[in-house]
C-alpha cells in the first residue's frame, strides 16, 4: 500500500532507519510533513501488514540543478530488508503519477557512490536518462578537474518524459 505521510511517520521512520545504521533525524521527517501540509512537497509512504517500508518525496519545483523549476523526486529511500522486492519501483511509479499532474517531465538527482548503485540501475531501467550536463556537487555544476568528495552531494541528474509519444 502507498499512502501520504501521516504524523506518526515522523517518529517511526528515524527509528527504522537507525536499526539499519542510517541516520535520518526526526527533524527531516517533521520538515517533510510540514511541507506536505503546506502543499510544498508530496510525501508518499510504502507499507505492508508489518509496517513502514520506505518513502519518496516530490518537490513541485526544483530549487537547484539543471531542471530548476521542474518537479523533482527528492529523498527516496526503501529500508534495506525490503530492497529488490519491487517496493522502490512502486514508490517511483506513484511519484511519477503525482508529477504527471504537474508536468510532462519527472526529474531526479542520484548519487554516484556505490551506495546508490541499485537506485542508478532502477532509474535507468525505468526510462530515466542523464541530462548530459555533467556532475553536480552541493547544488553547483562541477567543472572539469574541480575537487569534490564522493559523498551524497555528488550527483548526476536524470529525467524521464512521462507522456507517451
UniProtKB/TrEMBL annotation:
GO molecular-function terms, A-Z: acyltransferase activity, transferring groups other than amino-acyl groups
Q: Residue limits of the N-acetyltransferase domain?
A: 1-163
Q: SUPFAM superfamilies from the xrefs? A: Acyl-CoA N-acyltransferases (Nat) (SSF55729)
Highest taxon listed in the record's lineage: Bacteria
CDD domains according to UniProt: NAT_SF
Pfam families with a match to the protein in the record: Acetyltransf_7 (PF13508)
This chain's protein is named: GNAT family N-acetyltransferase
**Species:** Vagococcus allomyrinae
Amino acid at each position: 500500500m502507498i499512502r501520504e505521510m501521516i504524523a506518526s511517520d515522523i517518529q517511526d521512520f528515524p527509528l527504522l532507519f537507525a536499526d539499519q545504521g542510517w541516520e535520518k533525524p526526526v527533524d527531516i521527517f517533521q520538515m517533510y510533513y510540514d511541507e506536505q501540509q503546506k502543499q510544498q512537497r508530496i510525501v508518499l509512504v510504502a507499507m505492508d501488514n508489518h509496517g513502514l517500508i520506505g518513502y519518496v518525496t516530490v518537490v513541485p519545483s526544483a530549487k537547484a540543478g539543471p531542471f530548476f523549476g521542474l518537479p523533482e523526486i527528492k529523498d527516496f529511500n526503501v529500508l534495506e530488508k525490503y530492497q529488490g522486492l519491487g517496493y522502490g519501483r512502486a514508490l517511483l511509479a506513484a511519484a511519477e503519477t503525482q508529477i504527471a499532474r504537474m508536468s510532462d517531465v519527472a526529474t531526479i538527482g542520484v548519487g554516484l557512490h556505490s551506495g546508490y548503485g541499485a537506485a542508478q540501475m532502477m532509474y535507468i531501467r525505468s526510462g530515466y536518462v542523464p541530462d548530459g550536463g555533467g556532475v553536480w556537487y552541493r547544488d553547483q555544476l562541477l567543472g572539469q578537474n574541480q575537487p569534490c568528495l564522493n559523498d551524497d552531494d555528488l550527483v548526476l541528474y536524470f529525467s524521464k518524459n512521462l507522456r507517451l509519444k
